[in-house]
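Build the 3D complex.
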Amino acid sequence: MVKFNYYTPTEIVFGENSEYEVANLIKVYKGKKVLVHYGGKSALESGLLDRIYEALTANEITYVSLGGVVANPVLSKIEEGITLAKTEKVDFVLAVGGGSVIDSSKAIAVGALSKEPIWSFVGNIDIKKALPVGVVLTIAAAGSEMSSGAVITNDTNDLKRDFGGRALRPVFAILNPELTYTLPTYQTACGVADIIMHTVERYFTNKTSMEITDQISNVLIQTVMRHALVLLDEPTNYESRAEIMWSGSLSHNGLTGARASGGDWACHQMGHELSAKYGVAHGASLTALWPTWARYVSGENKERFKKFAIEVMEVDPSDKTSSEIIDQGILKLEDFFKKLDLPTTLKALDKDINEEDIKDMALKATHNNTFNPGEIKKLHYEDIINIMSKANQ
Amino acid sequence: MVKFNYYTPTEIVFGENSEYEVANLIKVYKGKKVLVHYGGKSALESGLLDRIYEALTANEITYVSLGGVVANPVLSKIEEGITLAKTEKVDFVLAVGGGSVIDSSKAIAVGALSKEPIWSFVGNIDIKKALPVGVVLTIAAAGSEMSSGAVITNDTNDLKRDFGGRALRPVFAILNPELTYTLPTYQTACGVADIIMHTVERYFTNKTSMEITDQISNVLIQTVMRHALVLLDEPTNYESRAEIMWSGSLSHNGLTGARASGGDWACHQMGHELSAKYGVAHGASLTALWPTWARYVSGENKERFKKFAIEVMEVDPSDKTSSEIIDQGILKLEDFFKKLDLPTTLKALDKDINEEDIKDMALKATHNNTFNPGEIKKLHYEDIINIMSKANQ
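Done.
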């Protein structure tokens, strides 16, 4: 029987110019001194940060700033943020950016209220204490703006690990599709892949699902695929940017997990190792693994893969065997990733990955053989070596 | 361009036996003295209230009880609850029931923190102060367990009016589909109608929609329709009860309103007058009006009605004129209501409604000619008389 918890308190303000609401929202959540956390030049050059600073000043909200968050956000920057937050006694963290900035902000928000080193929270999924975090989103991808999790990378040992808890759900997220107009094509594509995979990975479960959740998953994946292709030619199409941005939040806020299980996150877990070791963009790390993973495990739950092929990928099942249907479903998603110029093998990443590298990543992905990612099939060390090696041919 | 706000903080615990979580949840939201508010005998006789009282006692949460909430909850009972809440200094209101009990609880929660009479809040949709409300849901229908609104009836003058605000979103809702097994068929059907209409009324807008929101609306309506028919033969089918229960919450928590507008609530507003005057169940008041309303206004936005027919009601458009497509879409939903034995005209309500009654209701629904319900077509006094008279033939 289906059982689940659903908790999505993040307040969304969606639409053009919504970033002008930032000061009002911070006041609703009682922020008086804010750490504004961001990535690189784009937030500065676009004028977005200036608009935010102006809004804060006009509303008598004081702030300090910390930029320089990189993709796959690193521990050293987080520790810098925690020290700054404690020294300046900030009571609110505002993330201006995408998943990396949000996750870095969440880590700072936890660390600011703790005496323990932030890396000691890794693996904890029940964190209850953190400063409130607000978000001005600049890329539709991670869904971290409504999620309870964060993923950070330890730059001393290349480990990429997650943690989470109800205190990590941002209190608000400002979603202005226009802020994503100027993203490079590749980043938009990586974001699209991440969004789709958040729904796909929850979809692949051996446990009982719900029809309404499956149906919502179908339309989320299909809508994102359709509009991602529109953006290839029209990167400033407001409607398509809006559809993808809102779908990105819905794909990771819990809605697509309203069934009996959390799904199969093996690709995310293997992908984290690719990102930590080679700096591969998160979305690309997923597409480089998914087709090989899907073919490797599909025999373990043919019904689910068949349903995915027919209902999500709209494979016509007539005159086809189950295997043919399943293969075509996987192929259709793989082809879509190719259309977006995303890698669908490890080889396509062009990182010269060798056997030893794969063994190292398999060891890390299984936490030194103490953890087996996946649900459709629990992956052991050898499985991960098999999948990565096949994907590397 | 699409702009919207979305705020759905209610924590959901979904599944069998979930009512045993009630004390833990009240503690999360810092309740120490609870007003347990409920309707009639069923909550008592089923043993549900006893299970709740036991859980509260075991967790050292004190409580007082107030039962007797009727369908279309009345002001006099709410005033009784406010007095009790103030006298007993309760800090939490627990609604054990459906929409009427929840709305009555919300009103008590507002009144308990105010010196103003509760009826003075009618029409206010920005209420910011109320005691926290938790819900143990016993009928899938109103969606009030995740919504910001409440509707109450003044039993001194038969006015049924709404109010709302962020403070009125319940802090948690416990959804155990098994608690709805024993509902009478007619009540289940009325609930189904209410759920569908929450999505349908948001769907009918003249403003810009979003594809993802339309698609989610489609699958919500279709899933509820499919499982409502299953329940006609199998009222204790867990899966179907679960699909309808979760869809009921999603249909009214804001998800289906994530587009540029609030939709067309004319049927809800006209229906409230039927309920207030004749005690008609809320769901039945909607189905008695909707087909006539739809035919009366469909010319104002043919594109939207055509889309509804093709995408939601799955009318095959080939070899049909636009009018034929629109007519068949309306007919299909009307036929579905008939299959559930719901009235699809005023006449079918068997209340001997005459011309004077209709004029009285039209006057009330337009707040004495100061308010025009609807968006597809703003309804004036004469429009409401026309619609109700046609529906009464």
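Chain B touches chain A at residues 1-9, 11-16, 18, 210-213, 215-216, 218-220, 222-223, 226-227, 238-239, 242-243, 246-247, 250, 255, 258 (CB under 8 Å).
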